TrEMBL record:
It is an enzyme of class 6 (ligase). The active site is at residues 80, 104. Signal peptide: none annotated. This is Glutamyl-tRNA(Gln) amidotransferase subunit A, mitochondrial. Belongs to the amidase family. GatA subfamily. InterPro entries: Amidase (IPR000120), Amidase_dom (IPR023631), AS_sf (IPR036928), GatA (IPR004412). GO terms for molecular function: ATP binding; glutaminyl-tRNA synthase (glutamine-hydrolyzing) activity. Allows the formation of correctly charged Gln-tRNA(Gln) through the transamidation of misacylated Glu-tRNA(Gln) in the mitochondria. The reaction takes place in the presence of glutamine and ATP through an activated gamma-phospho-Glu-tRNA(Gln). Residues 1-54, 75-396 form the Amidase domain.
Length: 403
């Protein structure tokens, strides 16, 4: 729909970087309209994970593949902001921006071995960010270390009259001190995040990280986020409903693609949207319109909003009980090969992969994925820290200690 489109104004995040002298190198690839978890559905084709070409991974694959075409083994970056993660991971730039509605910054960061930071909702302006779910979207920051993420946050954060959800006083600057003592910290481990789909390797890195905090004197406790199991379904209803409404602006009249059909305005709208959106986008528009039908609105949309509040309250309760940050996996496993990812049933898996990230967006909290170690296959694995709303600085300070 927006292929070749050049916007007439800069997003606030872009303008703030330019104002500080940043050199903008270009736009990066992503899933169409940021819908996806693989960066396999972009209009420019799928994004390849730079780790596909690491020596260690190549060697391991060779042992396993018995001579099958090596090039078919390349790995997905995760998504939807996979192009940004690949660009940083391949050392082509200092930092990249992504968007994070349900995990799209943290997921590809974990798969590409870099830091992916989703700020608190309201800390960074969304003006100029194409909306997916207005109440969950946040511009995300991808860097190679936590300090760099804090530097970029310092440039981006702050009130913007063009985004009424931004807070007045973001508490800048975001300078991270080096934490030397974690003994006053309380780290929560949500028991519901120990899902059967979690790979044993990620699970073991997760528990090693918890042990590290404990051995350095932090209090590490098991906590409960009881509504976690509803989060994927709840997100789906809210996301598609907002998508149905947000995508209405793409009608071929004012900007973007317009089809050649001119028999009637309705026929032009329909053909433009059929041609301009991929299956994923069209599917979400249809699902969202179904949930918003007069007879379904109360049963789906309103109910999902109530569940969202319960999910958000789970976090409030945990933080009120004295927990400073939560420690969780970012994804279920390391990056998978493209051919494996695009198999039908793995699409469902890709939705489940957001289990550790989506609830955070529904609660508006800050969260950061940091690389923890390499798997047996020689691929990066990330762990996620989740903080209290607007305690982004504290969250990043803990993540910096850990990285
Ligand atoms: N994977 C989720 C989705 O497709 C999240 C996307 C995002 O954060 N932009 O909706």
């Amino acid at each position: 729909m927006l292929k070749g489109y050049v916007p007439p104004y800069n997003a606030t995040v872009v303008q703030r970087l330019l104002d500080q002298g940043a050199v903008l190198m270009g736009k990066t690839n992503l899933d169409e309209f940021a819908m996806g978890s693989g960066s396999t559905d972009g209009v420019f084709g799928p994004v390849k994970n730079p780790w596909s070409y690491s020596k260690q991974y190549r060697e391991k694959r060779k042992q396993k593949s018995h001579g099958e075409n090596e090039d078919s083994n390349w790995l997905i970056t995760g998504g939807s902001s996979g192009g940004s993660a690949a660009a940083v991971s391949a050392f082509t730039c200092f930092a990249a921006l992504g968007s994070d509605t349900g995990g799209s910054t943290r997921n590809p960061a974990a798969h590409c071995g870099i830091v992916g930071f989703k700020p608190s909702y309201g800390l960074v302006s969304r003006h100029g960010l194409i909306p997916l779910v207005n109440s969950m979207d946040v511009p995300g920051i991808l860097t190679r270390c936590v300090d760099d993420a804090a530097t970029v946050l310092g440039v981006l954060a702050g009130h913007d009259p063009k985004d009424s959800t931004t807070i007045q006083d973001p508490g800048k600057p975001f300078m991270l001190s080096s934490l030397t003592d974690v003994s006053k910290l309380c780290i929560g481990i949500p028991k519901e995040y120990l899902v059967p789909e979690l790979s044993s390797e990620v699970r073991s890195f997760w528990s090693k990280a918890a042990n590290l905090f404990e051995s350095e004197g932090a209090k590490v406790i098991e906590v409960s986020l009881p509504h976690t199991s509803y989060s994927i379904v709840c997100y789906h209803v809210l996301c598609t409903s907002e998508v149905a409404s947000n995508m209405a602006r793409f009608d071929g009249l004012e900007y973007g693609h317009r089809c050649d059909i001119d028999v009637s305005t309705e026929a032009m709208y329909a053909a433009t949207r059929r041609e301009g959106f991929n299956d994923v986008v069209r599917g979400r528009i249809l699902a969202g319109n179904f949930f918003l039908l007069k007879e379904n609105y109360a049963n789906y949309f309103i109910k999902a909003q109530k569940v969202r509040r319960l999910i958000a309250n789970d976090f409030v309760n945990v933080f009120n009980s004295g927990v400073d940050v939560l420690l969780t996996p970012t994804t279920l496993s390391e990056a998978v090969p493209y051919l494996e990812f695009i198999k039908e049933d793995n699409r469902t898996r890709s939705a489940q992969d957001d289990i550790f990230t989506q609830a955070v967006n529904m609660a508006g909290l800050p969260a950061v994925s940091v690389p923890v170690a390499l798997s047996n296959q020689g691929l990066p694995v990330g762990l996620q820290f989740i903080g209290r709303a607007f305690c982004d600085q504290q969250l990043l300070t803990v993540a910096k200690w850990f990285e």
